[in-house]
C-alpha cells in the first residue's frame, strides 16, 4: 500500500530536516541566507548558502509529502478518525512551520521565534510519527483503539 510508505518517507525526511535545522543553528549559519524565500544564489546551492539552502529545499519537499499524506489519510480505504486527525494536524503544523521559517529569517533569529520554530517542529514530528504508526496498523488490519 503506497500510503503507508508515503507516511513513513515523510517521517524519515522530517527527521533529516530537523537534524539539519539543529546543525544550522549550532554552526551559527542561521542567517547565511538573509532573504526569503530564496538565497542570494537563487535555485542553485553554493558557497556559504548550502546548509540553509538544503534546510529550505528539504522543508519544501517535506511540506509537500506531509500534505500529500494528510490528503491520503482522508481518502485511503478503511481510514478512521485518529488517522485523519493526526494527518491533518501534521499538515497544519507543516504549513505553519514553513511560514514561521520566513519569520525566523525576517526577525533575524529572534530567540522566541526560533524557540517556537523548534517547538512546532517537535509537535509536527509527533503527529507525523503517529500518522505513520496508524498507517501501518491500517495495512495490517489492526484496530487503532487503545484500552483508554
Ligand atoms: C517543515 C518545515 C521545517 C522544520 C520541521 C524545521 C525545523 C527546524 C529545527 C528543528 C531547527 C533547529 C532549531 C533549534 O535547534 O532550536 C530549525 C532551525 C532553523 N530553521 Fe527550520 N524548519 C522548517 C522550515 C524552515 C524554513 C522554511 C525556513 C526558512 C528559512 C527555516 C529556517 C530555519 C533557520 C534559519 C534555522 C536556524 C535558526 C538559528 O540559527 O537560530 N526553517 N528548523
What is this structure, in a nutshell?
The protein is mainly alpha-helical and 148 residues long. It is 72% helix and 0% strand. It starts with a helix and ends in a 9-residue tail after the last helix.
What does this structure look like?
With 148 residues, this protein is mainly α. The chain has one domain (2-139). It has four helices and no strands. It has helices at residues 2-26, 50-75, 81-106, 111-139. α1 packs antiparallel against α2 and α2 (50-75) packs antiparallel against α3 (81-106). The protein is elongated, with a radius of gyration of 17 Å. The model has no long low-confidence stretch (mean pLDDT 93). It binds protoporphyrin IX containing FE.
Amino acid at each position: 500500500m503506497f500510503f503507508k510508505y508515503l507516511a513513513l518517507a515523510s517521517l524519515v525526511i522530517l527527521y533529516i530536516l530537523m537534524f539539519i535545522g539543529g546543525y544550522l543553528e549550532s554552526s551559527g549559519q542561521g542567517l547565511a541566507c538573509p532573504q526569503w524565500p530564496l538565497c542570494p544564489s537563487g535555485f542553485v546551492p553554493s558557497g556559504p548558502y548550502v546548509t540553509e539552502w538544503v534546510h529550505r529545499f528539504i522543508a519544501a519537499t517535506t511540506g509537500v509529502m506531509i500534505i500529500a499524506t494528510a490528503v491520503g489519510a482522508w481518502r485511503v480505504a478503511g481510514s478512521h478518525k485518529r488517522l485523519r486527525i493526526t494527518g491533518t494536524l501534521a499538515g497544519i503544523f507543516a504549513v505553519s512551520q514553513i511560514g514561521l521559517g520566513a519569520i525566523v529569517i525576517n526577525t533575524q533569529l529572534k530567540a522566541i521565534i526560533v524557540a517556537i520554530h523548534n517547538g512546532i517542529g517537535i509537535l509536527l514530528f509527533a503527529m507525523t510519527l503517529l500518522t505513520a504508526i496508524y498507517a501501518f496498523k491500517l495495512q495490517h488490519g489492526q484496530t487503532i483503539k487503545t484500552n483508554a
